[in-house]
Amino acid sequence: MKNPIFVLWLIVAALLTFVLARLVDNAYFYFAGYVVLQYIVLATAWNILGGYTGYVNFGIPAFIALGAYSTVVLHKTTSLPLIVMMIVGGIVSGLVGVGTGYLTLRLRGTFFSIATLAMAVVMQTLVTNWAFVGGSRGAYIIRPATVQYLGMNYIEYLFLMMLGLCVLSVGVARAIEKSRLGYGFATIRDDELAAEASGVPTLRLKLIACGLSGGFMGMAGAPLPYYVTYLDPASAFSLSYAVNTIAMPLIGGTSSWLGPILGAILLGTLQQVATVTISSAWSLLIVGVMLVVFVVAAPKGIIGWFWK
Amino acid sequence: MSATDPILQVAGLGKRFGGFVALADIELEVARGERLGLIGPNGSGKSTLVNCLAGTLRNEAGTVRFEGKLLDGAPAHLRTRAGLSRTFQLPRPFGTLTLAENLRVPILYAVQTREGGSRLNIEDRCRALLDTVGLADKAARLPKDLTQIEMRKLELARAMAAEPRLLIADEAMAGLSHGEVDDILALLVRLNEQQGITIIMIEHIMRAVLSFSQRLVVLVAGRKIADGDPQDVVRQQDVVAAYLGS
């Protein structure tokens, strides 16, 4: 399928999801659905670096928080529309992604992962000590009740924006896969020395992957302050973002754009259901159990069952 | 730059790993279209030299010029794009890509970057290359399905896919049977004679090296001890001593 046609199908799927949400007509559905959609974007973004090039990034919370705190700053200083804030959050996160990548990509395997984790700790310390965005006390964001020009509830609007971001991120991930860039990413995952010997500029490609991955995470994090209305460093930098975001592509399968979506829908939905029916503490346990089961039973994830 | 200028000039090249001197003061010129054999006992620095030429390792001393241009500090991918390809001693295929896709990579990144656009149909080109090394029927398979010998052929095909003007074959024939060695030899000679590709062959199989090389260079303990006509070189006293002991 050609990429433009694929994106059209994505848009159709997104619209159907939105229509479904309107039919359910329950505010909680939007709140729960938003989280699942957010994880589709996060898992897809993580997979661009982690799945395609094989560099496992543990610093996910830092990129989300960068997007979120960009919004906090913009909210306090300007009255820009949310979509601009998402773009700004994406750019900030993307640039930090490229910068972190430049400093850490000489490290391989576990060492890279630990460096990204350290980066998240550094970021959290900085934000915790930055009084303008609330410091350790956190920041309150008063969200408008409705969006006038669309005539919808604000949570519906957030849901719709995240749906749009899903289309964008999945569209980009799919377009990369069988492109020149995608082949370059795959060679980095398989063997960097051989990649260089085949003419692949490995450092530049890794920076592109870091930028795209970090950028989409930042965009996904940008609406977060409006969703939670109270943002503090401890929750913005929550480790559960990292655990979930890594678990989802691993469960769905990292070799294709479809894997992160399947993982995010499955795990995200289960967690939301568990939070309501049992308790929120159970949702992380579910991730752990699922991860162990899949590592043992389906090392290539759900999509690994269906093709090679 | 005229056609008679050497394609590769190595001057005073040195490489050390900590206190160990792997290469010292290597001088080497390779003429355009030449077939050069490079031999030496294990640990003599052959692969280190290849790595320094290809940019996988950085040499601390000396210079490498390719077609007159200084390569110092240039990363490996730029050298490949410039027309200097190498095979790895131990095959390093891209494990998650099919054989055809393995060859697609240097076409996308080396050939198309060099020449711009798509002069050739990539699918056809991959198939033709696989055909040349006798792997056409496995185009859609993954490297893990290959035997060690087929992997070496894939390694060679991938280096050829970058359309080099200088090809460094690092033990492309190790472990191959008599007949297979002849196949690869014939392939390399064909590349050299028909397409004018300069080839440096590193090899332990003396029969192959002697029949292939127009000139032979011998490395021992990181130093060049002989350089000349293959038949003369293998009779040289210190070369014999290095291989058989004095």
How does this model look, in words?
The complex is a heterodimer of chains A (308) and B (246). By secondary structure, chain A is mainly α. Chain A has one domain: Orthogonal Bundle (ABC transporter involved in vitamin B12 uptake, BtuC), CATH 1.10.3470. Chain A contains 15 helices and four strands. Chain A has helices at 3-24, 27-50, 60-77, 82-104, 109-128, 154-177, 180-190, 192-197, 202-221, 224-228, 233-236, 239-252, 258-277, 280-297, 301-306, and strands at residues 139-140, 146-147, 152-153, 230-231. In chain A, the strands form two sheets. In chain A, strands 1-4 form a two-stranded antiparallel sheet. In chain A, a hairpin with a 4-residue loop joins strand 2 (146-147) and strand 3 (152-153). In chain A, helix 2 (27-50) packs antiparallel against helix 9 (202-221) and helix 2 (27-50) crosses helix 12 (239-252). The radius of gyration of chain A is 19 Å and the shape is globular. In chain B, the strands form two sheets. Chain B has a six-stranded mixed beta sheet with strand order 6-7-8-3-9-10, with helices on both faces. In chain B, strands 2-1-4-5 form a four-stranded antiparallel beta sheet, covered by helices on one side. Chain B has a domain at 6-90 and 164-244: Rossmann fold (3-Layer(aba) Sandwich), CATH 3.40.50.300. Chain B has nine helices and ten strands. Chain B starts with 5 loop residues before the first strand and ends with a helix. Chain B has 246 residues and is α/β, with parallel strands linked by helices. In chain B, helix 2 (76-82) crosses helix 3 (99-115), helix 3 crosses helix 4 (122-132) and helix 4 crosses helix 5. Helix content of chain B is 39%, strand content 25%. The mean pLDDT of chain B is 90. Chains A and B meet through helix 7 and helix 8 of A and helix 2, helix 3 and helix 5 of B.
